[in-house]
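Run log, item B.
One chain of 190 residues. Sequence copied directly from the ordering sheet:
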Amino acid sequence: LREVVQPDQLVISIVAGARVETIADTLQHRAIVRAMPNTPAQIGEGMTVWTATPEVSEAQQAQIHAVFGALGREMHVEEERMIDMATALSATGPTYTFLVMEALIDAGVHMGFSRHVAEELVLQTMLGSVLFARESRKHPAELRNMVTSPGGTSAEAIYQMEKGGLRTVLSKAVWAAYQRATALGRKVKE
């Protein structure tokens, strides 16, 4: 690639773990953007976190805002380590979401719903919950407490999830993904 990159071109990398310094050294080029989108970008609902070298001009940064903005939301970060963090939380995030959806759908089928009905119930509930959280601007714990009646079904469900370690498992998964992203960066450098 070194031979085809022109001096005035901007190089954008979405390679997980690939450090800006490694890309710049490999290509002998300094205008580098490192970004990490997630799969909802395919429908314009993604989240792309990105950083840029000082050699990326303001005009080029404006182009990046526009390009990544067309994929959903975008967020510029100054510290490159935040790209690995975003890889673990946001880029890998759909994986966590899909697994939770799958588990809820399977539970619905186990209770007696058809798969189609269980999918519709879960998808709309998750979509509505996310939109409600965004619009209300309230902390998720506050929203959860709004629907958790003492001694009710939500309280029992939360008790079982906490007892089963759901919060800990999710946290460990995100941390493991972060460690994997940083390890990939070391591997790419080698």
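Observations after the first pass:
- The chain has a mean pLDDT of 94.
- The beta strands are 11-13, 32-36, 46-52, 72-76.
Flagged for discussion on Thursday.
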